[in-house]
Amino acid sequence: MAAEFPGLTNRPLEDGMIPARIDTPREMASAMMVLQQDLADEARRIPTGEVDTARLSRLAADTERFASALRRFGWLAARG
Predict the structure, then answer these.
(1) Under a CB-based contact definition with an 8 Å cutoff, are residues 8 and 2 in contact?
(2) How many other CB atoms are there within 10 angstroms of residue 62's CB atom?
């Protein structure tokens, strides 16, 4: 992940793992894989009762940042 988004290595964990701006197809694919893994991890925790509101809040923020970046990425792709 750090190879795709070098700036993430300097970010505090509470800032999440999805950057607000994604410019390349490789970055988008990496962000999708990171978010997919984070969602899958959380999906395994919730049924066991392991609910951490801070972790869920970070995941929600990451999901919102990803959604915004995905819309922007789609807009850029449509423009060619």
Answers:
(1) yes
(2) 20
> What's the half-sphere exposure (Cβ side, CA atoms, 13 Å) at 74?
6
Lookup: tokens for 66? 């990803």
Rg of the chain (C-alpha set) = 14
Distance set, CA 51 to CA 10, 14, 43, 47, 57 (Å): 27, 16, 10, 9, 11
Q: pLDDT digits over 3-38, tens only?
A: 555 544 444 545 577 888 888 999 999 999 999 999
What residue type is 54 in one-letter code? A
Q: Are 69 and 24 in contact (CB under 8 A)?
A: no
The overall pTM is greater than 0.85: no
Closest to 59 (Cα-Cα) out of 29, 35, 32, 77? 35
